[in-house]
Design brief:
This protein has 20 helices and 18 strands. The protein has 513 residues and is of the alpha/beta class. It has 3 domains: 241 residues, Periplasmic binding protein-like II (D-Maltodextrin-Binding Protein, domain 2, 3-Layer(aba) Sandwich); 88 residues, Periplasmic binding protein-like II (D-Maltodextrin-Binding Protein, domain 2), CATH 3.40.190; 125 residues, no CATH class.
């Protein structure tokens, strides 16, 4: 649990929000492919003698294969990208990479099974970060970072590293991206234009209802509000002045900023009213009948014309991100204020498994995706001429149906190393700067919950929440009796003990500030 360090983290954030992100990239040794506006524009190329010395040092390393687990896909042509990356890595760290893409069909569950079974693997995107860190699923990284990723440590803001620290140990390396998160919609621009929808008028979730009605009446092939078994309106909290502190979306504990008290988010009049609204939308025919079990990803539903918008976390470049994923122009509308919290800083991170046989080389790889634009763009864009084409020095266009487009920049490394998409705003650095300046910093920034004492209860609570959440948010049934049954089971499984433990640690954190 964080104590007085929270003050230092807040100061780091204030300083970072006040600075341009153009300095995010630190010292690059491969500036030939860096996008305009990043640090690579002013970094001199390394001397030939330096390159020769680096190659000689790399040749002393025995070749190893590293595994990397990321969300999305799986892409059909990931093998050719692996081959290109492996050729590039040979003279860098003498390693090959195996990219394992986990579809959005409950990827966290798949990783949890890997962890529980003791499967050997190297790097993984951190779902359920604090829970897995507390139970020893990841290796401590502070010494590895100091030794094998000095460039990354020199450039990354300390706020990110503090957010990834549990019980005094660094357990992941966050993506260098926006500080705060917001939630919103990504609409199909063609549909918005066709019906003259004023998406900027949307201030709360209820405001989309007239649009849903129009789509229902005039677009019979489109589901007005498409849901699947992992994406529903639970993205949109009914408690804007609160924060999730436990590190998981599956444990119903929130902190009320006004009272600084932790409560069960499924036991309030507000959540009942929200679920009753969803129920009414379902009965009106706005929501697909199989929303609780459908496995179609939102991007694929929009791409195929089954849906006309997606929803979830949004960032300064979401217009570009969703346009690329849906393969059609998209319009973004954020609904909740941008908030900087410990959880937002933990939003995208890579950890090294405790079962890794090559943690040193894994950290070398992680250092490169934070500092090497050539590798970073291979991983996020693929191969030039096959998966994308250049339309400018650092501007690219994706090739439709190329077989590789699911590794998004927000998942890994340093987003400012990324090429500009041709449809992306060229003032990307300014977008990030403005986003950060307009972010609201959590009053409890720096708090990290230590779940060690309640691990058994947390496991049971997660299972109960998963049992009921999809049904509640799909609108298929009357939510009131389901909530009553769910809350009874949560209480019996020890929810009060978890709330009490979080509250105790929060009280100590506030007292130490």
């Amino acid at each position: 649990m964080a104590g007085k360090k929270g003050t230092g983290l807040l100061l780091s954030l204030v300083l970072l929000i006040g600075l341009s992100l153009s300095g995010c990239g630190g010292n690059n040794s491969n500036n030939e492919a860096a996008p305009a506006g990043t640090q690579a524009d002013s970094t001199a190329a390394p001397a030939a003698s330096d390159k020769a010395a680096a190659t000689e040092k790399t040749n002393e390393l025995e070749q190893v294969e590293l595994s990397l687990y990321l969300p999305g896909g799986p892409d059909k042509d990931v093998a050719s990208v692996e081959q290109a990356i492996n050729e590039y890595l040979k003279d860098k760290i003498n390693a090959t990479i195996k990219i394992n893409q986990l579809s959005w069909d409950k990827p966290a569950d798949k990783v949890n099974l890997m962890i529980q079974s003791g499967e050997v693997f190297d790097m993984v995107y951190t779902w359920n970060f604090m829970t897995n860190a507390a139970k020893g699923a990841y290796l401590p990284l502070e010494e590895l970072l100091d030794t094998y990723a000095k460039e990354t440590k020199a450039q990354i803001n300390p706020a990110y590293l503090q957010a990834a620290t549990v019980n005094g140990h660094l357990y992941a390396i966050p993506t260098e991206k926006e500080l705060g998160q917001s939630v919103g919609f990504a609409f199909d621009k063609a549909i918005v234009d066709k019906y003259g929808f004023d998406v900027n008028s949307i201030k709360k979730l209820e405001d989309i209802e007239p649009m849903l009605k129009t789509i229902k009446e005039k677009e019979p092939a489109i589901t007005p509000l498409f849901m699947n078994h992992t994406d529903s309106l639970n993205w949109f909290t009914v408690y804007p002045d609160s924060e999730d502190l436990d590190g998981s979306n599956e444990i119903p504990t929130l902190l009320d900023y006004k009272t600084m008290k932790v409560f069960n988010e499924y036991d309030t009049p507000e959540i009942l009213a929200r679920l009753q609204l969803i129920r009414e939308w379902y009965k009106a025919g706005y929501i697909n009948k199989n929303g609780a079990t459908d496995k179609t990803e939102l991007k694929d539903a929009v791409k195929s014309g089954k849906a006309w918008f997606t929803y979830g976390n949004m960032n300064p470049t979401s217009t570009n991100d969703w346009t690329r994923l849906a393969e059609k122009p998209m319009v973004i509308k954020t609904l909740l204020p941008v908030q900087v919290s410990t959880k937002s800083l933990q939003g995208s991170m890579l950890a090294i498994s405790r079962t890794s046989k090559n943690p040193e080389r894994a950290m070398m790889f992680m250092n490169l995706i934070h500092t090497d634009p050539v590798l970073y763009n291979l991983l996020t864009f693929g191969i030039e001429g096959k998966h994308y084409k250049k339309v400018g020095d650092n501007t690219v266009e994706f090739i439709p149906d190329s077989g590789y487009n699911s590794v998004s920049s927000w998942m890994i490394g340093n987003v400012l190393l990324n090429y500009l998409n041709k449809d992306e705003d060229p003032k990307r650095v300014q977008l990030y700067t403005d986003w950060n300046k307009n972010s609201k910093v959590s009053p409890v920034i720096g708090f990290v919950f230590d779940s060690t004492k309640v691990q058994s209860q947390i496991g049971a609570l997660i299972n109960i929440t998963k049992q009921y959440k999809n049904t509640l948010y799909s609108g298929e049934k009357d939510p009131e009796p389901i909530l009553k049954e769910m809350n009874s089971k949560l209480k019996a499984a020890g929810l009060d003990a978890v709330i009490s433990e979080i509250q105790s640690q929060m009280d100590a954190f506030l007292a130490a500030k």
